[in-house]
Amino acid sequence: MNHINKIEHIGIAVKDIDTANDVYQKLLGVPPYKKEAVESEAVITSFFKVGDSKIELLASTHEEGPIAKFIAKKGEGIHHIAFDVDNIVQELDRLENEGFQLINTTPKKGADHKLVAFVHPKTTHGVLVELCQNIVS
């Protein structure tokens, strides 16, 4: 049984979503396929798809949001790597049993029709890891 299926996307923290969309559209040669606000995380997201890979741009909707704090501390750049999983609850249990520190012990609704949860970067060599499971309609 696979625990992690693939890299779902790479999240990039940006100051201005529209400026970043222009840059990544030129870089990747395709427009974003979706722009979405995620109020629980205080972000606006924009997604690009190139082949089987996806890039998520994240801009904060207010100065106290997690992305604004990240940018203030580290600057714009790679924020997280997300992995696709079939069963996010089982995967969270497995990772916790393996000794990983979870930021979310319960999945929550994220962008792009996903349930999401995060693993603390203290236990993954400085990389914020997101687990994503498709929400079945």
UniProtKB/TrEMBL annotation:
<dbReference type="InterPro" id="IPR029068">
    <property type="entry name" value="Glyas_Bleomycin-R_OHBP_Dase"/>
</dbReference>
<feature type="domain" description="VOC">
    <location>
        <begin position="6"/>
        <end position="134"/>
    </location>
</feature>
<keyword id="KW-0479">Metal-binding</keyword>
<dbReference type="InterPro" id="IPR037523">
    <property type="entry name" value="VOC_core"/>
</dbReference>
<protein>
    <submittedName>
        <fullName>Methylmalonyl-CoA epimerase</fullName>
    </submittedName>
</protein>
<dbReference type="InterPro" id="IPR051785">
    <property type="entry name" value="MMCE/EMCE_epimerase"/>
</dbReference>
<dbReference type="InterPro" id="IPR017515">
    <property type="entry name" value="MeMalonyl-CoA_epimerase"/>
</dbReference>
<dbReference type="Pfam" id="PF13669">
    <property type="entry name" value="Glyoxalase_4"/>
</dbReference>
<comment type="similarity">
    <text>Belongs to the methylmalonyl-CoA epimerase family.</text>
</comment>
